[in-house]
Amino acid sequence: MGYKLLKTENKARRGEFSTVHGTVQTPCFMNVATVAAIKGGLSTVDLKEVGAQVMLCNTYHLHVRPGDDKVKTLGGLHKFTNWDRPILTDSGGFQVFSLAKLNKITEDGVTFNSHVDGRKIFMGPEESMQIQSNLGSTIAMAFDECVANPAKYEYSKEACARTLRWLERCKVEMDRLNSLPDTINKNQMLFGINQGCTFDDLRVEHMKEIAKMDLDGYAIGGLAVGEPKEDMYRIISAVEPFAPVDKPRYLMGVGTPGNILEGVSRGVDLFDCVMPARNARHGQLFTKKGIININNAKYILDDHPIDEECQCPTCRNYSRAYVRHLLKAGEMLGMRLAVMHNLYFYNNLMTEIRENIDNNSFEDYKNEYVDRLDTRI
Fold first, then answer.
1. Which residues pair with 4 in a beta bridge?
2. Per UniProt, where does Zn(2+) bind (predicted)?
3. Which of 9, 124, 125, 146 would be a feasible disulfide site paired with 170, CB 3.0-4.6 Å?
4. 182 is an active site residue
5. Per-residue pLDDT at 147 exceeds 90
């Protein structure tokens, strides 16, 4: 198991990431199923139809409901969701700092109130690893401190140091859990997370430190949270030279098609974002010509598919007029068809990116689409 770099075009990387649940062709977009389901009514069977390779679920949400202990009793996330391909579980760190009412950060971890029922919960590196082990995911993310941008330099520096210490504890605990006889996935992988807000020196130093730990992969976290995209691109370029070449690089929570193209051109292998599904539910749909709002009146009598170049189940079978009608009428089918299209679009975008890196034409492809795909028509 592990990452194999097959080809490069400048900084863009074409690779294969082998796991106990199958091999992922990279660059890859991971489809976000926060509570073990894609919002919008897509099943794991649908995910395969739209070309998904990896499903991403969230530790915090599944710990709160239905409970990671119950998921373990039911055989783990793969059996629970009927998904036989890789699953990545986010550590819960971001949700602890963004959704929950934060009470206290200590060296041990974080005490906070559940956003569901208000009960007090403690989560630290060991607890996060234990929950993710119960879930049986393919890849577990290390528990980190997510600092909101803009942030003060000194606090960001302290948070980086704490995240590094927490990562060391995550690694020890995962090794212990993977050795237990009742562990669902004894080959669970661990990804560390690079932090440091928008401070280049903190980012670089932190990446150097976590790279020494020989983890299964390395993520860049704490970006795409409101800072200008130019800052995000600058940070990726700053840390990339210090990320291990033989391990996958994961840009967390990103992003638009243009963000993904820019990320790939800077050496990123893995991406995830709720945006394609969330925006689809509100009628914002991606096409090769740009972004359309299907709720607009001009689509009332439009009998064309959402994207005439698209081969997704929605575009093969239904018109813009019909999808618009369903969304306007509040029919669940409208959201389902819209989400199916956007996720197919994202997964197909990654297929085209891989093909263009294979053919030494990625830079031309990027230059043609990087602005167009993010432009609203």
1. 16
2. 310, 312, 315, 341
3. 125
4. no
5. no
**Run of H or E residues at 350:** helix 332-358
Catalytic residue among 46, 68, 269, 272: 272
Residue 222 is labelled as binding a ligand: yes
Per the document, the length of the chain is: 377
| Cα dihedral across residues 131, 18, 277, 357: positive or negative | positive
**Residue 334 labeled ligand binder:** no
pLDDT digits (tens, 9 = 90+) for 78-136: 999 999 999 999 998 887 777 666 668 899 999 888 888 888 889 999 999 999 999 99
Going from N- to C-terminal start, the domains of the chain cover 2-273, 280-374
What are the φ and ψ backbone dihedral angles of 362, each rounded to 5 degrees? -65, -40
Residue type, 113: N
91 known ligand binder: yes
Query: Over the stretch 272-296, which tens digit does the pLDDT of each residue have?
Result: 999 999 999 999 999 999 999 999 9
Active site residue 201: no
CA atoms within 13 Å, Cβ hemisphere of 99: 14
Nearest to 87 by CA among 269, 225, 272: 272
57 annotated binding-site participant: no
What does the alpha-carbon distance between residue 251 and residue 143 come to, in Å, rounded to a whole number? 16
- Residue 195: name the closest of 229, 161, 172 by CA: 161
Cα separation of 354 and 12, whole Å? Answer: 10
**Is 61 one of the annotated binding-site residues?**
no
| DSSP character at residue 7 | E
Average pLDDT over residues 68-81: 98
Residue 236: pLDDT above 90?
yes
Instruction: Give first-to-last CA distance, the chain, whole Å.
Output: 43
Q: Pick the closest to residue 157 from 199, 103, 94, 211 (CA basis).
A: 199
Catalytic pick from 46, 68, 90, 216? Answer: 90
d(CA 83, CA 187): 17
Tell the CATH topology of 2-273: TIM Barrel (3.20.20)
Bond prior to 244 in cis (omega within 30° of 0): no
Residue 102's pLDDT is what? 65
